[in-house]
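Forum > Structural Biology > Help requests

Title: Can anyone predict the 3D structure of VOC domain-containing protein?

Hi all, first post here. I have the sequence for VOC domain-containing protein but no way to get a structure on my laptop. I'd be grateful if someone could post the structure tokens.
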Amino acid sequence: MLSSAPVFSSYSVNSLNEAKTFYQQVLGLSVTESPEPMGVLQLQLTGGHNIIIYPKKNHVPATFTVLNFKVKDVEATVDALAAKGVVFEHYTGEIQTDAKGIMRGNGPVIAWFKDPAGNILSVIQE
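Reply #1:
Sure, ran it for you. Structure tokens for VOC domain-containing protein below:
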């Protein structure tokens, strides 16, 4: 029934301005702003995929990864993003990350970071 329906994903932030700056200037994504009644951002991603980011006054960040970017080289991407001020998460326990915040040897090579609203994003090795 829904197999041919166009799809998109969405999540909330507490500040559209901060989100727009982060996604556009730090991550280098194509971002458009919609003047809809509440206003939203639309991220245009590779492959024609779109993400809608909407403001929410009582925003609470998700406790899971909301967006994954497949990259050829996680370490090089982590270095480039860190140079732009992105702080990578460090985990201990079942998920262990190294000094750069990269998990290796327990599934795909992956590193997690947060947007200004606290939503968890990742870069993951292709």
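The first strand starts at residue 9 and ends at 13. Helices lie at 16-26, 74-83.
Shout if anything looks off.
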